[in-house]
Amino acid sequence: MSTKNLLALAVVAVSLAGCRVGPNYVKPDVPTAPTFKEGDTWKTATPNDAMAHGKWWEMYGDPQLNALEEQIDPANQTLKQAEANFRASRSVIKLNRADMSPTLSVDPTLGATRVTPNAPYRGNLTADNGQGNFILPLDLNYEVDLWGRIRRSITAAQETTQAFAADLETARLSLHAELALDYFNLRSADAQKKLLDETVAAYSDALQLTIDRADGGVAPQSDVAQARTQLQQALVQSTEVTIARAQFEHAIAVLTGKPPAQLTVAANPLTQQTPALPGIPAVLPSELLERRPDIATEERLMAAANEQIGIAKSAFYPRLNLAATVGFQGSSVLNWFTWPSRVWAVSPLISQTVFDAGRRRARTDIAIAQYDSHVASYRQSALDAFQQVEDNLVALKQLETEAQQQRDATVSAEEALGLFRTRYEGGVDTYLQVITSQTIALQNQRNEIDILRRRLDASVLLVKAVGGGWNVSQLPKV
């Protein structure tokens, strides 16, 4: 092939290399509403600096929680795994970008051969003095990206890397929320334990009272048995709470990258004043799509799947590879690198699959189906996010009312217990009525603590549902 023909081929290859087959990516629409149904009582955080900077847990004003949350990022192993996956995906981009450049390789050969006259079937030939073969080739191989296959592979790798980055943020948000939930459950267990310890002390006094009354012949021995049973049941509940409290502490230790034996969280019972329920920045459903890292993951995977359609369609078109070799070949070391020993060769290769029994069509159909699957997954993730926000908004709204209702019920139960205890001591009522009122009062007191825990849990889950302080603009530019 002449130099002119090679130049013409190169011009054609470069002009075709700007082409791309396959669909351009357009983000699909998501069914949404202008506002959240339960958002009419949304209390906006003021100020919301902690939310904006991602440290949303600081809104609760709990130094112990803040200290524990700060230990997650440098030590949590699940987070380290997600970060390693992200780093690996960045290297995949480099791997695909390498296909845009030619591959150069060197394969030197040094050798000499002497033929013997005694070799079989050589006849009367005489021996020669040997022959040297010294080769130093530099081989070049380059695929011209005529139809955008390589460029789409790079784009797909970039979008997949952004999906891994969003996965990392999803893991970070989930882990911080999980720790907050475990922490508030632990503090709720502390409050339950404090209440039960006080109840055990009160039941112990009541048991002593019934024993004294029975010894004085004022009360039957059945009252003693009932009082003792009530005390033992309270002790059982106290032990059960101790188990739950220890398990929450163990979970917090693992989240912060420690063996459970290395972490002890000081007891700190929940109260109605601490920690405070924070306000959370109000968002619109359309804004939620930009705030949730899990939705960003689905959107980036969808974009990558769109590129796979173009890659599959490029197989229907011819591929052009340019191969060239330059170097030196001599018969000895003395003439190896002389100008007459130079060698070169150029061999462009155009290949086109003529018949594959529908293999390329099947791969294209697979890519299209996988893209459609990602579209459905993206839309479902958005709908799930809308539901999570609505669920926790209504939970916060109704739990506020429920908390007041429970407070009233607890006050009434405590008043009733006091009345029945006084009437029993005065010999008016039986001890069964005291036990019944004790059980009702304790249940209402425990419910009050549990409602406070549920309100805190709902606020944490709402923060998680709106994406914490994250935004899609934080995805890395790769």
TrEMBL record:
One of its GO terms (molecular function) is efflux transmembrane transporter activity. The keyword Manganese does not apply. It is found in: Cell membrane. It comes from the Bacteria. It holds the Pfam family OEP. Residues 386-416 form a coiled coil. Keywords: Coiled coil, Lipoprotein, Membrane, Palmitate, Transmembrane, Transmembrane beta strand. InterPro entries: MdtP/NodT-like, OMP_efflux. Its main location: membrane. GO terms for cellular component: plasma membrane. It is a lipid-anchor. The keyword Coiled coil applies. Belongs to the outer membrane factor (OMF) (TC 1.B.17) family. NCBIfam families: outer_NodT. This is Efflux transporter outer membrane subunit. It comes from Terriglobus albidus.
